[in-house]
Amino acid sequence: MAEPKPGDGVTKAAKARLALLWTVLPKIPSVIRVVLLHVLKMSEPSRYLDLRENVIVSFLRSLLDQPNPQPISKTQRMTLRDPGIKGRIWISKVSSQVPPEESIRDVLLAAIDSSKGQFVAADGICRVPDIVPVEAEWTGYRAHASPSSELPAIPEQQKYGEMMKECSSDVTILYFHGGAYYLMDPASHRPTTKRLAKLTGGRVYSVRYRLAPQDPFPSALLDAFVSYMTLLYPPLEQSTRPSMPPIPAGGNLSLALLQTVLEIRRRGLKVTWFGHEREVHLPAAVAANSPWLDIVQSMPSWTTNQKWDYLPRPRDLADIKQPKDAIWPAKPPRKHLFIDDDFLLHPLACLQLNASWERAPPIYVCCGWECLADEDKWFVSKLVKDGVAVVFEEYEAMPHVFAAILEKAPQSTRCFDGWAKFISQACGSPQEIRSSFTTIKAKTMKEVDINVKNLSPFTEEDLRRFAFDRVGRKSSFPNTPAKL
């Protein structure tokens, strides 16, 4: 192996800075325009956001809405870089064991088959993913460290033990990072998991599930299910088992896991897990932050809320123009990065199409005035109709997952506090959780009650029509005409 040449590190750093410069330079005119409109109070966002927030959202929007996108593999690779572990955080890296039985996959596939209804053609065949070890990071708050502290050079199990010494509650959060199923990693979400651990006094199990397009649906869902069972019934390390079922948190995957568990329980199924037949218990609660439910991006807010968000405008599913690389287009070809065409509207992917959430545990949902607002508000109204306790918080004028993007905004502090408060209460006294629906005003932070009856104007027929129209299919449901 060749020895590194002097200056190699500097050269790489210089190249990275140059690449960043070339990314930023073309955006300067649009940033200047945003600043001028904001200062002159001539833009609607300037009425709700401060200048810094407005510039960040606008810059992200211009960065993500590229007319000539780069290859999927390059974008994915950039988001998987590990920045290293420093500061007031414990990280203990682990990997689940593969059970000797295939029962967990068989039960998942049975749940997928029994819940597909009329959303999947009768001859549609679901992929059968391998059962693999699923990596994760135990995360805890390291109170006595400094911002520059590194983790001690001790075995991972010892790191876990040191982390547990600092936990002051029984909270266990099963965290699934965002990234539209093809980006990001537990490493990119450490600021969020550390903050949740600090605020709850508990621990976070952050899962490195398989990503699309290499591993499409239902690979991530199987990894989530394996991780959930690993916490419920640890094969060897019984000390890692939570005192009560963990609380899935994140977005689509946390709710897909919940709906999977509900379907398994509806059918009375059990999982053979390391030699024992195990019941699949419901989680203690689910805490979803800006959850993506409508994966085909069919609801109106994906267009009408563009001025408040940085997410790019939906593209026609038949016209995804990504540069070719080793992982895209998929083989055989499909329209969506995450899922095969036949399963685009499966209710375990397009979660807004589920017929029922009855008997679900308490659920927390927050969102802003983002592109996902319609689906999130519909979901909350559906939970209420199904008799589920739900805490909903809407943040005026905020973009998608704003608490992670606008870390210094007071709304972000309020969001983390509300998120963590719900999780702690769900672990301590879930019976005391009462449904609430609140708007948090942008500049005053005033909290205003929402009439849940007026939360969503859409019917279930509307949602089916939106979704079927979006994928160019004719609905097989009565009274739901779709475009041909």
From TrEMBL:
Ranges of residues in domain Alpha/beta hydrolase fold-3: 173-403
PROSITE patterns in alphabetical order: LIPASE_GDXG_HIS
Signal peptide, first to last residue: none
Domain of life the protein comes from: Eukaryota
InterPro entries: AB_hydrolase_3, AB_hydrolase_fold, GDXG_lipolytic_enzyme, Lipase_GDXG_HIS_AS
Keywords: Hydrolase
Family per record: Belongs to the 'GDXG' lipolytic enzyme family.
Protein name (record): Alpha/beta hydrolase fold-3 domain-containing protein
Native organism: Apiospora aurea
